[in-house]
Amino acid sequence: MSKGWLNALTEHPLLKGRVRIVGLVDLDRKVAEARAAEFALSDVVIGSDLDTVLTETKPGLLFDVVVPNARPALVSTGLRHGCHVLTEKPMAPTLESARQMVAEAKAAGKIHAVVQNRRYVPGVRRIRQLIESGALGQLTSINCDFFVGAHFGGFREQMENVLLLDMAIHTLDAARFMAGTAPKAVYCLEVNPPGSWYAHGAAANAIFEFEDDIVFNYRGSWSAEGANTSWEASWRIVGTKGTLLWDGFDRFEAHQVVGTEGFFRDLQPLDIPEMPDASKTEGHASVIADFLDAIEAGAAPETVGSDNISSLAMVFGAIESARLKQRVQISA
Prior knowledge:
Blueprint: H1 2-11, E1 23-25, H2 29-38, E2 45-47, H3 50-57, E3 61-64, H4 71-80, E4 84-87, H5 95-108, E5 112-114, H6 122-133, E6 139-147, H7 162-179, E7 183-191, E8 203-210, E9 214-221, E10 234-239, E11 242-246, E12 252-257, E13 267-269, H8 284-297, H9 305-324, E14 328-329
Helix pairs in contact: 4-5, 5-9, 6-7, 7-9
């Protein structure tokens, strides 16, 4: 992940020249040294202890690309050193630790935000624009399918709740962004299908209730071979006036009801709005740019922790529902 961040920071037009890297930290110093060499970062401090490197470099920003269980201590250390912190997803390994991060950032007067890069996918933002236009009428349901046979190897294959915790957070955050309102409750069935190469929770079906009578249906699997969906999932967005389909790639289909008679009412096609601001569709670069813009403006970025915790609450609500086998209220 650090390679993706450094590529964005050093090469992307939205970010080039805006940030100077002053230190790299890894538990294995040789890993940090190799990354510094790869990006020709000859004047950086390299170490295996974050506190020591922050003391020496005194940076304004800390980019957090660690595994989830290490995140709470890292974020706390960065805030204590006066850094704004941008962290990988998921925001935290538990909802309680996420709440603590929000409180610590507020107390420090610093911004802690989360890299929810999938909400900066062009399709997601174009769908939100169509919903906001009112062309679909009142939003009634959001439905998505995510089926991918992903053979990562490494830590993911040993994680508990691997699909919900490591991947579904992207899709759930995108759905919350599309809905434009807060999640209230969830019922979830989580399984590890026969033939799964994961230790736990490679598939899940979840029904989320949002405010304004919106239902979000999620079906997903990370051990589904033979017909991969897009990494962005495939979507059906239903409103009182029409429906939008998105395959997660480049194909959109949307129709609005125009007839008033007949068993099936007459439809007319809808155009999907183009993005007026291309800077909002550049994945990691857009998230980081929004983070930097917010710091400079003294404002909150779109993925600030105090808001993004609601997406994390959806994940942990689904995990709790699957454990209890019952409907669970969602509270950030």
